[in-house]
């Protein structure tokens, strides 16, 4: 048994939440498996944490690539509360599933649950600190303390009570934020930036410190956000340093995003070499949005040494993940020439025909296939028409092999 929860839950919290701090989050899937096994064994706290993992990026780092299933999450929260998890009760309240019927069935009252979680929070448990902070941030304290407006003698007294309780979120959220709960920073930012109308005034100067702190703590997503704040201030070089740190820490899609910035010269000097480096890092992270760009770079030798075999690899992945017509047109050329693969005229024709309106390479492939009768009946006239439409250096060289007779028939020139 761990200090606050079962060993499985404490390890899962470390892998899923706390290791995000410092860019060390590489074991999220392992953490989820621990939770799934613990839930099967009847661990009530595991049900609560697993529910949050299934609720999407609002509640867990998107870099873990967890599935989203709100219906299952709701079931798990109810189960957690019914099994006697204190965090389960408070998170169920926050998740909108703590009905009167459920409150009557669960073994803990919401007041008892709050006391248990608050004790763990005071002892230093970050998830509990976050949960307690949220009870104040989201006004759940009214239910926990069983208070309503009519309990107060006047509006001023009620407002003072509300203001006093809301403000308690600040300390708890900062503790959670520094302890490994990056989500706490997002609520802190909202607390400072927006305040709570009629009760808490906005504090924009404090809001500016939140994501800077998160970036320095090592949260990859907040490094990216802080980079954006710096860029808005015109501090481009410093901003890109933080963007890169966020990418190195695993913030999803940041390598592709950086590659686009370098490729277009957006805010920085255009740099094809750096763009390709970023795109390749994205690919190694399992992010394939820019495979067509990598294919283009290796096919033509922009930013990297020309390597048609690598181009074939990247174009193949691009077609697989996003059905890129641009990639199809270049894959057709690879299959025609045998670049990165053996020649396959059937595939070359299929890909070229499917993408002929997208790129000159498709037209070139169709032209050569028809002119030489590769995998289909020879039709030089039709092939010449495609080559003329392609109209680039390779197609122009290919056209030199053919001529039109006095009778208007296209034939192959004698060599």
From TrEMBL:
Q: Which Gene3D superfamilies match?
A: Tetratricopeptide repeat domain
Q: What name has this protein been given in UniProt?
A: Sel1 repeat family protein
């Amino acid at each position: 048994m761990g200090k606050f929860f079962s060993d499985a839950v404490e390890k899962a919290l470390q892998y899923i939440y706390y290791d995000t701090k410092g860019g060390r989050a590489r074991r999220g899937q392992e953490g989820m498996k621990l939770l799934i096994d613990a839930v099967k064994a009847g661990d009530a706290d595991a049900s609560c944490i697993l529910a949050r993992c299934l609720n999407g990026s609002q509640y867990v780092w998107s870099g873990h690539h967890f599935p989203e299933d709100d219906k299952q999450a709701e079931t798990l929260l109810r189960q957690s509360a019914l099994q006697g998890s204190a965090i389960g009760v408070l998170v169920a309240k926050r998740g909108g599933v703590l009905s009167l019927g459920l409150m009557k069935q669960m073994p803990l009252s919401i007041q008892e649950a709050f006391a248990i979680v608050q004790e763990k929070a005071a002892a230093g448990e970050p998830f509990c600190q976050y949960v307690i902070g949220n009870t104040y941030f989201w006004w759940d304290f009214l239910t926990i303390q069983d208070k309503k407006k009519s309990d107060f003698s006047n509006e001023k007294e009620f407002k003072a009570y509300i203001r006093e309780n809301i403000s308690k979120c600040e300390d708890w959220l900062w503790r959670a934020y520094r302890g490994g709960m990056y989500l706490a920073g997002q609520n802190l930012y909202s607390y400072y930036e927006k305040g709570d109308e009629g009760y808490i005034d906005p504090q924009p100067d404090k809001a500016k410190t939140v994501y800077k702190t998160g970036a320095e703590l090592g949260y990859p997503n907040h490094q990216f956000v802080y980079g954006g704040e710096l860029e808005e201030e015109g501090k481009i070089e410093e901003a890109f340093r933080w963007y890169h740190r966020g990418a190195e820490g695993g913030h999803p899609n940041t390598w592709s995003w950086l590659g686009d910035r370098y490729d277009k010269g957006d805010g920085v000097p255009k740099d094809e070499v750096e763009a390709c480096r970023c795109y390749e890092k994205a690919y190694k992270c399992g992010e394939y949005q820019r495979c067509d760009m990598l294919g283009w770079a290796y096919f033509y030798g922009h930013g990297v040494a020309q390597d048609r075999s690598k181009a074939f690899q990247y174009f193949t992945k691009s077609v697989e993940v996003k059905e890129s017509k641009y990639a199809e047109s270049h894959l057709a050329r690879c299959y025609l020439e045998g670049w990165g693969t053996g020649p396959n005229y059937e595939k070359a024709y299929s890909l070229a025909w499917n993408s002929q309106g997208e790129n000159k390479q498709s037209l070139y492939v169709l032209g050569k296939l028809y002119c030489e009768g590769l995998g289909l009946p020879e039709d030089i006239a039709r092939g010449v028409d495609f080559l003329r439409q392609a109209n680039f250096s390779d197609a122009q060289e290919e056209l030199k092999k053919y001529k039109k007779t006095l009778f208007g028939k296209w034939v192959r020139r004698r060599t």
